Amino acid sequence: MSVLLWAGAVCPILILFAAMSIFHMKTDRAALLGLLCAAAASLLVGKSSLPVTVMDLEKGAFSALNILIVIWPAVFLYEMLEHAGIFQSIRKLICSKTQDQLVLILLICWLFSSFLQGITGFGVPVAVCAPLLMAIGVRPLWAVIITLLGHAWANTYGTFALAWDALLAQSETTAVFQTELLSGIFLWGVNLAGALLICWLYGRGRAVRHMLPFVLLMAAIQGGGQLGVSFVNSTIAAFLPTTLALAAAWILLSLGVYTKPWQMESRLIEERKEQENEDTAVSGRLAVFPFILLAAVSVLVLLVKPVHDFLYQPVVQLSFPEASTGRGFTVEATDTYGALHLLTHAGFVLLLTVLAAYGVYRSRKILKKGQLRDICRDTWKKIVPTSLGILFLVMMAQVLKGSGLMEIIAQGVTAVSGRFYGAAAPFVGLIGAFVTSSNTSSNILMGSFQKTAAELIGASEAAILAAQTAGGAIGTVVGPSTILLGTTTAGCQGREGEVLRFMLPIVAVEAALTGLAALLFV
Prior knowledge:
Layout: H1 3-22, H2 27-44, H3 50-84, H4 86-97, H5 101-119, H6 124-135, H7 140-151, H8 158-171, H9 176-232, H10 239-254, H11 284-303, H12 305-311, E1 315-320, E2 323-324, E3 330-331, E4 334-341, H13 346-363, H14 371-402, H15 405-417, H16 421-436, H17 439-457, H18 461-475, H19 480-490, H20 496-521
Antiparallel strand pairs: 1-4, 2-3
Helix pairs in contact: 1-2, 1-15, 1-20, 2-14, 3-6, 3-13, 3-14, 3-19, 4-11, 5-6, 5-7, 5-8, 5-9, 5-10, 6-7, 6-19, 7-9, 7-19, 8-17, 9-10, 9-18, 9-20, 11-12, 11-13, 14-19, 15-16, 15-17, 16-17, 16-18, 16-20, 17-18, 18-20
């Protein structure tokens, strides 16, 4: 493979990154630029035909619905809670349990966000947790960053093991036990690293020392629990440990552990005026009602088999013919492209939550009659640019995938790394997740390739596949669509490039460490 060919394939990704993080372009405009570059590269570099490129654009537009139907109710939920004054009540409730500021932060951005990833995914953790962190004084941009760091580790077995199932299906590996073992070890490391990094960002070494016992215990329950449960039932490998970790943390606080006042001057926290006189007429039970309902409905819809099987039936999907490029890359025909199971989707769960919460708040006079118009207006202002950005990003990802450009990028990485490919494997997963903002999509895109690469170099396919899904989990942190969802609900739209620029060195280091660990087992 020539250097020019590889450079041409990777060029759209580099342009997208530069537009967002260096030139500070708004995400919708940067995504449109990236999409145009991807379309040009598919024609000139991938040797794709115009009809095939147009078909990829159609596929991408349909795939974007998977994310958009989560964003719309999530933003509405945020605006509804903001107008109802719910976040102030939540802040008062949480602070009544502990006055340790860092514990409060970890409860939300690490434990609760991981729990939400375990049951929903699709960007729901950052959409929900960023506003909650802001309610306890975290700056909007930092609220997005630390939530992304906190739940990245759960992106393989989260959403009831969607990404894990995709990895097994695409790779068709027979080394399932070994892959589970190594994936669990790598992801446990990501879990622990994320929590320690959040502590470091809050208050450097002193904060790490203060929270170390708590972090080690919770990481053992979450990461170690995920590793153990995955051998028994991969579907609940993230859900069960994250639930137990939340319960364990609540028990510790109830016993008086980590409840004394403790805080530091931190760049994460914005100066706040004393809020004792804030109107917090909403009771604690009503304040947390939407979040409890969200968890309960998710478990009912996704985990209770009779209910899930019944609701799983309504599906929207498209048919596409086989497509081939001038370089011999072929995408098989399908009658089930982008199967969207409407009633078991995270967006439907959010919609039910929104409708029920609005009904309750309206009946209790927490929301006034005229406020619905204001909520809809503020929601519309946020979702229009966000929706355009996500639409263009997902279309770009599909063009890169459908034209074979992603395969060219992966092959280039393989050719350069040679027998040290184990160290590079997480970066392949990371690139897939960066482009698609999804570990599931990364595993679908790269799973088969990674197994083939392992066979070609005579490496352990379990180690390579585990590195793939760990790299994909790490890479979701810098997925532009996910970042955009977080900045939207946090009210800091237009600053996605700042998040990306800050996070990229972190994910590069995490992927490199995962790669070094993978080399030990290759």
